[in-house]
Design a protein that fits this description.
Blueprint lengths: L1 H24 L2 H17 L7 H12 L9 H9 L6 H10 L20
């Protein structure tokens, strides 16, 4: 029984580690998708677990309410400063949401080896 428990615990820790690595190093769209999926899971949880606040915070973070997805106060100052130029506010709002088209992609062939002199 102890061997089975040990294997299960190691498997859970490894799965959590891989999940954290994907979340941290993955694209922003994956982060938003995971937040939305976790919010849906928290919404389906029994009321006895009291996950309503967690679900609300995950929905706010997934929705991209502010420029960083946090409180929302930093996006309002950036929007007010860039309201003069045409389309500036919409472009900043798209950047704040972390669209997949805004990610930087560098071809591997263009990356050279570092030379130490």
């Amino acid at each position: 029984m102890s061997r089975l428990l040990d294997t299960a615990l190691v498997t859970m820790v490894l799965a959590a580690s891989v999940g954290y690595a994907l979340y941290s190093l993955g694209p922003k769209t994956l982060r938003r998708w995971l937040r939305t999926a976790l919010a849906d899971l928290a919404a389906r949880a029994p009321a006895a677990l009291h996950l309503g606040r967690v679900e609300r915070r995950l929905r706010e973070a997934a929705g991209g309410s502010g420029a960083c997805g946090g409180c929302g106060s930093c996006a309002s100052t950036a929007d007010a400063a860039g309201a003069d130029d045409a389309g500036g506010v919409e472009a900043r709002a798209e950047d704040a949401r972390g669209g997949a088209g805004k990610e930087i992609r560098i071809p591997a062939a263009s990356i050279g080896k570092r030379r130490i002199n």
